[in-house]
Structure formats: C-alpha cells, structure tokens
Please model this.
Amino acid sequence: MQVSQLVCLGLNHRTATVELREHFSRLCLVEEQADNAILGELVTLSTCNRVEFYVHVNAQIEDPQAALIELLATQMAPAAFSEHLYFYTGQAVVEHLCRVAAGLDSLVLGEPQILGQINSACQLAQQNKTMGPALSLLFRTAVQAGKRARTETQISRNPASVSSVALALAQKITGNLRNQRILLIGLGEIGNLTLKLLKARGVTQLALANSTQKKASAIAAAWGGQAYSLEELPQALLTTDVVISATRAEQPLLDAAMVRAVMDQRLGERLVLVDLAVPRDIDPEVDHVPGVCLFDVDDLQNGLDEAFLARQREIPAVEVIIAEEVSAWTRKREELTVEPLVATLRQRAETIRQRELARTLHNLGDVDAQTLAQLQHFSRALVNQLLHEPTIQLKKKAGQPAAQEYACAIRDLFGLTENLES
Model:
C-alpha cells in the first residue's frame, strides 16, 4: 500500500456554509465505486458540520484530487464547491481523522458525538463493501485515538454548550437531575437540544410548555409527562423543581408577581430557574423572590468560558495521543505491505500440510475420530510453529530499506510466485 494512495477530500463548518454542506452531503460516490478506475476503497463521513470522502485510490491515478473532483462533478458543478474543499494525502489523512475523532476539529471542542458518527460511517461502508484493509486500518486508528482522548484526558468532560452548562448549574443546586421535576419552556433549537441532554441524564419527570401546545403534548406523552400552554405557566410552576426556558418571546413570560404568588403556594420549596432566551423569558426581578435561584445567559457564559478553557488545556495531551496513534498506524501500515506474502506463504504451507496428512492417513488406513483430530491438531501446530518466526521477521522488516530484497529471498526460498505489493 503506497501511502500516497490514501486521500481525504471534504469540506466542513470552517470552509463552507450549511447550505453548501447540505448540498454536498447529497453527493454519493458509493454507486460510482464498482465501475470506477479511481476508487479502490471509500468511506463517507457526513455530519451536520462536515462531509468528507476518505479514499484509497487505485495505484495508477496520478492526481487523486483532480480525479475525485471530476468524479463529483458528474453530480454537482465544481464551481459551486471546489474553492471550499480541503485535501489531505498520506499521513496527513491519518492525522486529520484522528483530530476529528478526538473532537479537536469539531464546532464544539471535544464534543463526543463525532466518535459515534465515525463508527456509523464505517458500518455503512462495510455494508456497502467499500471498505478494505487500508481504510479499515485508518479508521481503527482514528477510533482508538478518539477513545483514548476521552478516557485519558478531560477533553469531553466539561459541558460546552449553553444547554449543558445550564443543566450543570441546576444540578449543582438540586443534586442529580434524574430525581428532579423539570419544566422545559420552548421547543426551538435550544429547547430540542436540552431535551436530548435531559434524556441522556435519565430525567423521567418532565413537563413541557410551548406556544404550540400540540407539539408539547406529543413530546410530553412520550415521556409520560404533562404539557401546558404558556397561559398555564403558574400552574406548571407549582409542581416543578427546575425550569429551563428558551423561547423567542419578545416579553418576559415570568415576572416577579407571578413567581412570588407561586412561591407562596409552594410554602418555601426552592425553585431553580434557568433563562436561556435572548430577549429574556424571565424578568430579572424574579431573582429577588425568596426561595428562587435564577440564572441567565450571562451566568451561563462564564460557565461556557470556563468549560472551553478547561478543554483547551487538554489539547496538548490529546495531541500526544494522536502522535502515538499515528506512529502506530505507520508501523501497522508497513506490516500491511507484507501481508500478501505472508498469506501466500501460509497458503503454500497449508496445501503441503493437507497433502502430507492425506498421504499419512492413506498409509495408516482407517483411524478413529480421536486419532484424526490429534493428527489435525499436530500438523496445524507444527506449521504454525515453523511459520511463526518468519512471519514475525517479515513484519519487522516491512518499511525498512531492505524489505524488498528480504521479501524476494523469502519468495525464492519457498518457491512462491506472489509479488509483494509495494
């Protein structure tokens, strides 16, 4: 496997608008692969923030970048996307994908979702039979780097979105949110993200309030919760521990008079309010009502800044991991170059084993099943022991200047005709 055959072509949130990314994500190279002289192996990584084609191109392709753009041009005019593309080749592909898997190339530094998306891309490529040994090694390396980054560093352990910081603040006051009654006001983009985070935290006691009550009712029913209209907020507040509000209302939904009246009925039971909206959903005067803890986006920004700085401090440690995994990839890639020879050597040995075993069984005549099993085990073990050291030495020599000469010697000594892939 020539390292130059490994390429990545793509665009992401830094190089292209969401509209272009949406269009680009509809391009499909899988159907092109079977009859195309360019694509040896292919994995497509498509998320909301990136679309990347990882390809092991066929050896005769002199300019992989131009060839891939020409292939994509059959589905979309190059003028629409070419200036937004980035292109990597060889080891740079490995370094890039490892950074992606570790969350260093994400919109939100260290976000964990990308690792699952990489695994899904691999599974789809395997189903489509477009992944071979080169990309399999690449993606195994990247997944390993991503897993190590998350287990050996703190890159993903501090909340890094408005919603996650909001839940972290609420949990500091109330304890485990799984045991709290949560009221979510608003089901826009932030509200839906908050829903996902609440589900991930195991929250089961959920109430929803929304300007469109039908939508709130459908979601609440799935959680076994209650849906309210915005006019019913005083009633909803009576049985709530934590309120998270994220609507686009032009005027506050909760004012001090309303919350004070509610708190009088709650008999001093604490109420945590988190306002994610701009303009604010909750009048700042509410913070002066006894028993109420109110956070707004300014409070959350401090948490976001702290989380981001904490994750930034982990970058050097993650980069060390990536460097280690890229080095491991280099060693394993070199071993791949001798695998065809190793396979041929073992196939020759297996052919000889079976032939000689058949001759021995012919001379012995009828043997019982136990004896046959012992002969099979003995002959296999003998072949494996004899080939173990040559196999180890072949892999050690891979990538060294004398590797070709060593491989030729092995082929000559064992009478093999299989050529070693360079």
Summary: The chain has three domains: 3-157, 162-295, 338-414.
